[in-house]
Amino acid sequence: MPDAGEVLFEETFEQAGALNRWTRSDERQVRIVEEDRSRVLKVESDGGGAFAVLELPAERFRGSRVQVQARLRAENVSRPPHPWNGVKVMLHTAGPSREDYPQALLGTGGFDWLDASFTARIPADVTTVRLLLGLEEVSGTVWIDRVNVIVEEPPQPRREVIHTGPVHKGHDLPRLRGAMIPTRPTAGDLRDLAGLGANHIRWQLTWDTFPRSPADQATPKEYEAWIGEILDYIDTLLPLCEELGLRVLIDVHTPPGGITGRDHMRLFSEQAFQDTLIRVWEHIARRYKGHPAIWGYDLLNEPLEGPVAEGLMDWQALAGELAARIRAIDAERTLVVQAAPGGGPKALVDFTPLPQPNIVYSFHFYEPHEFTHQGVYDTRTVGQTYPGTLREQVWNKETLRGIMQLVAEWQREHHVHIYVGEFSAIRWAPGDSALNYLRDCIDLFESFGWDWAYHAFREWQGWSVEHGTDKQDLSVQTEPGSRKRLLMNWFEKNRR
Questions:
Q1: Which domain-ending residue is among 153, 187, 221?
Q2: Quick one: average pLDDT of 86-99?
Q3: How far apart are CA 234 and CA 201, in angstroms?
Q4: Between vectors from CA 428 to CA 423 and to CA 433, what angle results, nearest 5°?
């Protein structure tokens, strides 16, 4: 078993024959050159892509969290056709439970030498681990040097079941079925959602995330002042939530310190921001202790660790600290915990349940992202259908079931309850694709007995069930469309 900090792989390309053990797509496009008195890997592509691929010993990686590091520069890299294409420093892992493609998120155009890294959790049953360097579906040139794979967290021993007795759901209802709402909904919004039959809201505390959040530059004092303003606003509507029977989950959506790039929260690089999140949750716990409208607290939306600075807690440890601090103030309130990275189902099954009582575990479901988010960040990605095929993989209800089954097995192993805090499909997916996807998701959530919240109600028109399927039509439909009727039919069960 490797130790924390152990180097599992290192490549400097300095040794003669360094590429002999790599598989290259084209020896003329992928070769070693002299660069500033050093030997580096040079990859050139005319648009189709070019790679160097190396098979790594899977048995050394199983169950570890690793950090992949590389130094690289680029010139004239074209815009990729899809968000997942472009400059590649990537692992490909596969095994009986799942297949993953964690990678560094790198830009286009050109950039001088920089250090890139990403963190990946390797499944305990992995049978294949490949390292890929190069360019995918773009033209341009990239130079790569000093590639390392380092163990951040070694494999953990099999976890004992922490919780016994009745599974904690945090409520006495057959099911929570509701929606995520914007930070500042109106009383009319809440009445309309309750009128559809919803019995639950996930109330996001989001600080203007488009195009950038003020939190990215805000001091801890400024962040806490913003939190205070939002909580004052929430207080004006909590009596109405209680009147309408809407169970409220408070979700810290924007973290203190914001997000740098797309894969790292400053929370994990500066102590001041971890301290801020702890103070915020202690304040919320005191403020709402015993409040009848509050169902629970979602500790952090889609946590992104990236590299964790020395001396700071990773998300597993920080979540445990937050739970302990809240429990010291309020022993009863339900806590909702997502896993890093990103709050997805595959992250959750690698998470260690916390020892504190009254915790519900959550994941967000947008698999496959290329379908659910088509046209959101890149207008060239539209046209993906569901059911359909993406990256040579068929996506249908059974594919979704296979992913969710991993969570169900983790749930049974640890004797806990599951809450799906977000799921959706962009409204302009072709034909009835969004409807088909939402129907299959909800059918599966219900079959597993999970609570759920649709993303989102009157937050952004792209996810709205009150708008139609034409991306250019921003008008609200006068009659319920098929996606809205689907939610209404499920919400109606809350009344029975």
A1: 153
A2: 88
A3: 12
A4: 65
